[in-house]
């Protein structure tokens, strides 16, 4: 609570100081939506507000929504949700040295987290150093997650309930890019803080990687004493799209104590592929990712703790109208659909050979309206089926979600 209080106090102080700044010195640097970029550029590819000629820029985004969902006819009624308020600040410290931080307030301030806070040092366009609190580049959504960029109020199930959404750790590594005509290639490679035993010892009573986010001590120590490695290679062609391949893995368990071996080294390994493209002429935007997880689960654990998981999502967004609407120039009306699937326990029962279920699939059609590229109004309808480990008749969830998200 003391830490949260200090964060809030610092935020209020910064807002008070900001209110005393001569607004004539403020200049917004908009995101360049026409420039070709990779998902790894998302951390800087945002609209910032520069203060005069100072090297400091600030920005952020917010998300809020109303929803009414029911599962097998049972509903909690109407719900208004303050999903998140995110503030990011950057500074050009000196030549080829810059700093960026991202602080997120979730659920009206119930949770406060530093998602990104790193120093980037350019040694060469192909060799850049990054150190601090980094965002592990597994898949595409983990880095490119800003709410105003998406037509859906909910984040993908595979990126939040299978992979740990916006998973960040203290670490360091290298990244770089190279351009050649219509081609662009980039890479990232980091050593960082790691997972811990909570991925198999948690309230979900299953293998659940997002549980590691609840361990704040991961910013201070590594449970196994061995770092997590995360690497990604992405290739983009301006006429075809972007393809990314990523890997994240390391030893998660505490296998020794004061030099005494108490367990074997148990690994968690994650592979992911992501792709996005825009179809010419019709301007249909397609993006998605798929991930595979392998966890070395002790044999003493029950079969509800899966050692293999897989899942992903695909979004299809189709602009149907771009015009001056209600005074907004170049406003866009979209229709969209998200398809999702996650299997938390890939395999069969030892006793019967039957398929271990515990899976979920969802279809979410949507309509979105963008008065500008930085603001989106969203109407979503979710239809979802979730099956338990024994394969009993699935629980059906359905309902509407109306929300807004905007950069500021």
From TrEMBL:
<feature type="signal peptide">
    <location>
        <begin position="1"/>
        <end position="19"/>
    </location>
</feature>
<dbReference type="InterPro" id="IPR023614">
    <property type="entry name" value="Porin_dom_sf"/>
</dbReference>
<protein>
    <recommendedName>
        <fullName>Porin</fullName>
    </recommendedName>
</protein>
<keyword id="KW-0732">Signal</keyword>
